[in-house]
Design goal:
The structure is a single chain. The strands form eight sheets. The protein has a seven-stranded mixed sheet with strand order 5-13-12-11-10-6-9, with helices on both faces. The chain has a five-stranded mixed sheet with strand order 22-23-24-19-29, with helices on both faces. A four-stranded mixed sheet has the order 2-3-4-16. The longest helix has 27 residues. The chain is an alpha/beta fold. It has 28 helices and 31 strands. It has five domains: 58 residues, no CATH class; 178 residues, Alpha-Beta Complex (Aspartate Aminotransferase, domain 1); 194 residues, Type I PLP-dependent aspartate aminotransferase-like (Major domain) (Aspartate Aminotransferase, domain 2, 3-Layer(aba) Sandwich); 167 residues, 2-Layer Sandwich (Chloramphenicol Acetyltransferase); 245 residues, Nonribosomal peptide synthetase, condensation domain (Chloramphenicol Acetyltransferase), CATH 3.30.559.
Length: 1017
């Protein structure tokens, strides 16, 4: 249009000058077109030159072309793509499409230049056949991957590594080089390359035949198995994740009769036009949707609203335009921002879409089966209407899945009908099909993969997640130590290696890694798999460290800032976390207060144990953990690592004593350990004993101060001891846990101040009016000053009751944890006649941060409940579940920080806000020692900090209660009676959960009678 307008407006002169004029104008226009093309590649849009006339109107009635995109007179949606804008209004295409062609000279030092030249020479020598292959086929093979990451500075290394063989997590290129793969096909190879069971399934199917078109027998079986594992009603198979998303959008529009689709900035939903979108926002707040890449018409995205992920504003926009929106499409964990997990937002989005009749679609192409068998929906506790899947379940074969509730999925085939009657497919349908849908080879791979995932259970994902956490945690600590801004955020087995803040040259890290045998691509997520071992993780970490050493030595990356003389480096002196400081202060009150923080476990071992080997495994495990080497400064501000700490594990032989004397000696040992305070300043902070009770009976006793140890840590330590013992002198795998300093720095006050402040605001609002303290019917009144003498009531519940409670929890659509917490809230309300309670609920920081570490990571969240005695118990369960989710979304602050932010009247004899703790744990997996049976339990307390700590443990299909209490307030008989009440209440809930809280029994209904409420209980 500009060329013709300029030609039409050119003044007519003599022939010679006219030719010159036209040529001059054409040259000027060509220059402008080049500028426009450059802006299309990613530079700023070129301004229109004043010498080029504006387009000429073809009709006297035609309106002049607007300077900006037209704004409709009616109120416009906040987010809209309003037709094809003028060229001047089209924003530049984002960087990343096509090679970087800038010829700008970079001021490199000679050392940097030499580094790049050496790296190119080494890289080319190692991978020359890949380079030659790429060049040989460039003329006839149009492959975007061959130009990905193009940069003139290292043009000679821009080619893909050509792989000819793979197995597990290893690749072999055509030069014969071996690699550990952490790209893993951009996500699908969760089980490694060519899993044997998938290969066998493919071979068997090839022998049977590859029938494209007819129905394959495994399609229905695989669909049934998929529904069993995910809880979805119905499944439809497609070829790719992109096709799955496309099908879900079409389904949603058909079902709702609406057209608009909501997606979120930063999501990736495939490669079809409608989801390759981006948004611009004007100063007045008006959003406009534009194509993300060249070749996509503007009209292709005009029914797509692009909103910010995780914001209240986005929820408000959806609410305002609900009657236009067919579906909200969510990538629950964004591949390039895996550390952002807005749980509260997703719960609010779920409720909003339900209320407004909008279909909620979870894109689980990456997250499905990765974090846990139920994917992101299980992880967040949010059930989508439709979900799309792919990648993992294909076992390496191309596959896509649309799954969801039957009423939505019926849109594909009309729904349920049967033969022999007048039924028919009654649901309205849309069209979606494909030649290779249900391809026999793909379905065979899916069926084999689903069978494997079902057989392995959640332990498969948990193991991979632990290795990923260790890898990311150790490398992030190393980056921090080296003064680098690099970071590896991760979610489950998914990582993103973020180097951009270090500048352009930091991209060379990926070439260094490939030169060292780590297969990875810049600007793409990385993935760990079930095929990776601890030794592989060690090699990956070593490759990163060696690469960064070399890059820093030559100035490619900034060098670490020297630590001034006399100051401790951060890895040597670690600031206490907020929670640790609270424990430290509590420990300083007196010796009994310190003993209240003595955490302990005992392990009963039956069988032919090798004591020397076991002691060696224990000492090695304790020595591996940074937290057990900590020594604390007298002010409680910094913890230092004692590199010379020695961990002794004495063997106490009681096998020659009679039963009574032996039992007395064991009880004396436990009491002596429970009442011996730890010296936090000089150490040690851990004590371990092995007791021989008989030739094939041993007791392992472990005591640690809470400031370096919690319940989650106990599982890590016990699992590691068993692992080292089982190695029997063979090379043991490396520890999967990360140093506590990694956790401390990841959760420090400067980690995310905005999240901490938002969490504090939540708790301030919740406790704007603080409820009265819990008035339990004590046997003795609270003293003017607190004391810490304590004891424990231990009770094992009927295994059949546990199974009944599981069924009740399922019927109420909640977890056993929430059900038991609701029962405990009901009991306390009945004992106190109070209907506004606060109970502390500990949460594991390791789970929240996905950092597998030993140390104090627990945080007690003050959960408020309103157990009105006339309220239906089922309603309390729902309220408790919502309260717990809300609390988990605001756990970035400690209990002490919450209390300090509230208006609470203090009493020296009582704790503020939280005096009772409820803890449900199922940490202890079945420990395995070769030839032995093992049983783990917590030891009785002799000192306690809170008035009551109600610990209920799931172990071996049963529930065990350890109820710690302050013995200066309560008699044992009282606590035993209250345990009976709780047991009776559980049985009552299991029989009939539809009763009100006031109707729940406190005495076993089978025995008759009832206990009145209040202090007489």
């Amino acid at each position: 249009g500009e060329l013709f307008a300029a030609m039409a407006s050119a003044p007519h002169t003599g022939s010679g000058s006219a030719l010159q004029t036209v040529m001059a104008q054409q040259l000027a226009l060509m220059s402008q077109q080049i500028q426009l093309l450059q802006s299309y590649r990613g530079a700023a849009p070129a301004a229109r030159a004043s010498s080029v006339a504006a387009p000429v109107a073809v009709s006297g009635t035609a309106a002049a072309a607007p300077a900006t995109a037209p704004v409709p007179s009616a109120p416009a949606p906040v987010v809209a793509a309003q037709g094809e804008p003028d060229t001047a209004d089209k924003p530049a295409m984002p960087k990343g499409f096509g090679p970087q062609l800038s010829r700008e000279e970079r001021a490199l030092t000679k050392q940097q230049q030499d580094h790049i030249h050496r790296l190119i020479a080494r890289y080319n020598a190692r991978t020359m056949k890949s380079k030659l292959s790429t060049q040989a086929h460039r003329a006839h093979h149009a492959d975007p991957r061959t130009a990905a990451g193009f940069n003139r500075l290292w043009k000679e290394m821009v080619y893909p590594i050509v792989i000819e063989r793979s197995s597990g997590c290893e690749l072999q290129d055509i030069d014969g080089n071996h690699y550990i793969d952490i790209l893993n096909g951009f996500g699908p190879n969760f089980l490694g390359h060519s899993p044997p069971f998938v290969s066998e399934a493919l071979k068997a199917q090839i022998e049977r035949g590859i029938e494209v078109g007819p129905q394959t027998p495994l399609a229905g079986e695989a669909a049934k198995l998929f529904c069993e594992l995910t809880g979805m009603d119905r499944v439809s198979w497609v070829n790719t994740g992109s096709e799955a998303v496309q099908a879900a959008i079409r389904l949603a529009r058909t079902y709702t009769g609406r057209n608009k689709i909501v997606v979120f900035s930063g999501d990736y939903h495939g490669n079809f036009d409608e989801v390759l979108v981006r948004v611009t926002k004007s100063a007045s707040g008006v959003r406009r949707t534009f194509p993300l890449a060249p070749g996509i018409p503007f009209r292709a995205v005009e029914e797509v609203l692009v909103l910010d992920y995780g914001t209240e504003e986005s929820l408000e926009i959806i609410r305002e335009h609900a009657d236009e929106i067919a579906a909200v499409l969510v990538e629950p964990v964004q591949s390039r921002r895996p550390d952002f997990q807005p749980r509260e937002f997703l719960h609010a989005l779920r409720k909003l879409t339900e209320d407004e009749g909008i279909i909620l679609v979870f894109d689980e192409v990456i997250t499905g089966f990765r974090i846990c068998p139920g994917g992101a929906q299980e992880y967040y506790g949010v059930q989508a209407d439709i979900a799309t899947y792919g990648k993992i379940i294909g076992g390496g074969m191309p596959i896509g899945v649309v799954a969801g509730r039957a009423r939505f999925m019926d849109t594909f085939d009309g729904g349920q009908w049967q033969y022999g009657d007048d039924s028919f497919p009654a649901a309205g349908v849309t069209f979606f099909a494909g030649t290779f849908v249900r391809h026999p080879l793909a379905i065979a791979a899916v069926h084999a993969t689903l069978q494997y995932l079902k057989a392995q259970g959640p332990g498969l994902q948990e193991a991979v997640n632990r290795r990923t956490t260790r890898l990311a945690g150790e490398l992030n600590a190393f980056f921090k130590e080296r003064g680098l801004k690099m970071h590896i955020p991760h979610f489950a087995s998914q990582m993103f290696i973020r180097v951009q803040e270090e500048g352009e040259l930091a991209t060379l890290l990926f070439f260094h890694l490939r030169a060292r045998g780590i297969h990875v691509l810049e600007n793409f997520p990385s993935y760990m798999t079930a095929a990776h071992t601890d030794a592989d993780v060690d090699r990956i970490i070593a490759a990163f460290k060696d690469s960064i050493d070399e890059m820093q030595a030559d100035g490619i990356l900034q060098r670490p800032v020297p630590v001034p003389a006399g100051q401790q480096a951060w890895v040597r002196g670690v600031p206490l976390t907020e929670g640790q400081r609270e424990v430290w202060f509590g420990s300083q009150l007196d010796d009994m207060a310190s003993c209240a923080f003595n955490e302990s476990d005992s392990v009963v071992i039956k069988g032919p144990l090798d004591p020397a080997r076991f002691i060696d495994a224990v000492a090695t495990t304790l020595g591996e953990q940074e937290a057990f080497r900590y020594r604390f400064d007298p002010e409680g501000q910094v913890q230092y690592v004692d590199a010379d700490a020695v961990f002794e594990v004495p063997l106490l032989d009681l096998s020659g004593l009679d039963d009574k004397e032996r039992a007395g000696r064991v009880e004396a040992l436990l009491e002596q350990q429970a009442l011996s305070p730890f010296d936090l300043e000089h150490g040690p902070v851990v004590r371990a004993h092995l007791v021989r009770l008989a030739p094939e009976s041993h007791l392992f006793v472990l005591y640690c101060h809470h400031i370096v140890f919690d319940g989650y840590s106990s599982e890590i330590v016990m699992r590691r001891i068993a692992q080292l013992y089982a190695a029997q002198g063979d090379e043991a795998p490396a520890s999967a846990s990360v140093p506590y300093s990694v956790y401390a720095h990841a959760t420090g006050t400067s980690a995310d101040p905005a999240a901490s402040e938002a969490a504090l605001d939540y708790w301030r609002t919740l406790y704007a009016h603080v409820p009265a303290p819990l008035e339990l019917p004590t046997d003795r009144p609270h003293a003017a000053l607190r004391t810490y003498q304590g004891a424990t009531v231990h009770r094992e519940l009927d295994p059949e009751l546990f199974q009944s409670l599981r069924g009740t929890a399922k019927a109420l659509k909640t977890s056993v944890n929430v059900l038991l917490l609701s029962c405990f809230q009901s009991l306390l309300s009945r004992l106190t006649s109070q209907e506004d309670l606060v109970i502390g609920v500990p949460v594991a920081g390791q789970a929240h941060t996905q950092l597998e570490t030993v140390g104090y990571c627990v945080n007690a969240l003050p959960l408020r409940s309103l157990p009105d005695h006339d309220k239906a118990f089922a309603s309390l369960v729902g309220e408790t579940q919502r309260s717990l989710f809300d609390a988990l979304d605001h756990q970035e602050v400690s209990l002490g920080q919450i209390v300090n932010g509230l208006e609470i009247t203090r009493d020296a004899g009582r704790l503020p806000l939280v005096e009772v703790i409820f803890n449900y744990s199922s940490y202890f997996s079945a420990l395995e020692l070769p030839g032995c049976t093992v049983a783990t339990h917590e030891n009785p307390r002799r000192a306690v900090y809170f008035d009551m700590f109600f610990n209920i443990i799931e172990s071996d299909g049963r529930l065990v209660i350890d109820w710690d209490y302050r013995s200066d307030l309560f008699d044992r008989q009282t606590m035993e009676r209250w345990t009976d009440h709780f047991n009776a209440l559980l049985k009552g809930v299991a029989r009939n959960h539809s009763r009100s809280i006031g109707e729940l029994p406190l005495v076993d209904e089978a025995q008759g009678g009832e206990v009145p409420e209040g202090r007489s209980a």
